[in-house]
Amino acid sequence: MTTSAAEESGAHPRFAEALSELGLDDLHPRIRRFPDAARTAVEAAEAIGCELSEICKSLIFAADGVPVLVLMDGSSRVDVELVRRELGAAKVTRARAELVRETTGYAIGGVPPFGHRTRTRVLADRSLLDHDTVWAAAGTPHTVFPMDPKTLIAHAGATLVDVREQTA
């Protein structure tokens, strides 16, 4: 991949490098860049024109102080208690912005599902499999990419789990 392909796609340089390392250079032309930031799943779904549940959120939690990435569909919330049980942790909390950036190399609102600075444990909620295609951040709040969820989960090295908060 040439630098210009990464620059043209708008993907974060670290994410562009990860795509190359994974043999996913063909994804660059499909990365969509928005003039306005889409930091939330709602904003991203509106910008793309897709269902909220077709957004793949990349959320960092701290399980007994150790970062863990949870991939969740955009219309659902993570049940922290289910994550705690899944990991066998004493305590799971939402990670602070500094820990997110330190762990992933990206700011909240632009964290992709893979291509992080450090290797972390990854959990992917089964709800992502309800779609043929999901959209995830490409390293910035201005960029997203489409991928079939099974491939995305495989590239993220995720364990498939049920950690979605159940609505009453």
Write the layout of secondary structure elements.
Layout: H1 3-9, H2 13-21, E1 32-33, H3 41-48, E2 55-63, E3 66-73, H4 80-87, E4 92-94, H5 97-104, E5 121-125, E6 134-137, E7 143-147, H6 149-156, E8 159-161
Parallel strand pairs: 2-6, 3-5, 5-8
Antiparallel strand pairs: 1-7, 2-3, 2-4, 6-7
Written description of the protein model:
- The protein is of the alpha/beta class and 168 residues long.
- Helix content is 29%, strand content 23%.
- It is built from 6 helices and 8 strands; from the N terminus they run ααβαββαβαβββαβ.
- The protein has helices at residues 3-9, 13-21, 41-48, 80-87, 97-104, 149-156; strands spanning 32-33, 55-63, 66-73, 92-94, 121-125, 134-137, 143-147, 159-161.
- Strands 1, 2, 3, 4, 5, 6, 7 and 8 form an 8-stranded mixed sheet that branches.
- The termini are far apart.
- The mean pLDDT is 92.
